[in-house]
Amino acid sequence: MTLAHAATSRPVVDVDSPTTWPGPLADLIYKTADEAELDEPALYVDLELENRESQILDLLRGHLLRAQHCTRLLDHEADALRAHGLRPWMPLSLMTA
Predict the structure, then answer these.
(1) Cα torsion through 74, 45, 25, 28, rounded to 10
(2) Mean pLDDT throughout 22-37?
(3) Confidence of residue 67 (pLDDT cuts 50, 70, 90)
(4) Tell me, what DSSP letter sits at residue 11?
(5) Does residue 48 have a pLDDT over 90?
């Protein structure tokens, strides 16, 4: 538990640990997964949740969210990094303004 969490006493939801998800959120996610029509069920795919964003945010209200992000580079991406290094990212809207 972090100091910020101790001060607020809000429950922590770890996206990688379904046992920490609020019950209604877990119900929604499992129902959506069960209803997903997958061409190849053995392959990992992201669930389509965009149309439920406000509902999910409501279910997370009052909770702290813990998440991690990790990216695996494809061979050509790693080669480009070695050849050119990292470049600053700029949104397309700023590039064309």
Answers:
(1) 170
(2) 88
(3) confident
(4) P
(5) no
Report how far Cα 10 is from the mean position of its chain's Cα atoms.
20
Instruction: Report residue 22 as tokens.
Output: 């609020």
* 67: CB partners within 8 A, 6+ apart: 14, 15, 16
More confident residue, 7 or 87: 87
d(CA 57, CA 63): 10
Burial level of 59, CB count in 10 A (0-12/13-18/19+)? buried
- CB 65, CB 15: distance < 8 Å: yes
3-state secondary structure 40-92: CCCCCCCCCCHHHHHHHHHHHCCCEEECCCCCCCCHHHHHHHHHHCCCCCCCH
- On whether the pTM is more than 0.90, the answer is no
Cα gap 45→32, rounded to integer Å: 13
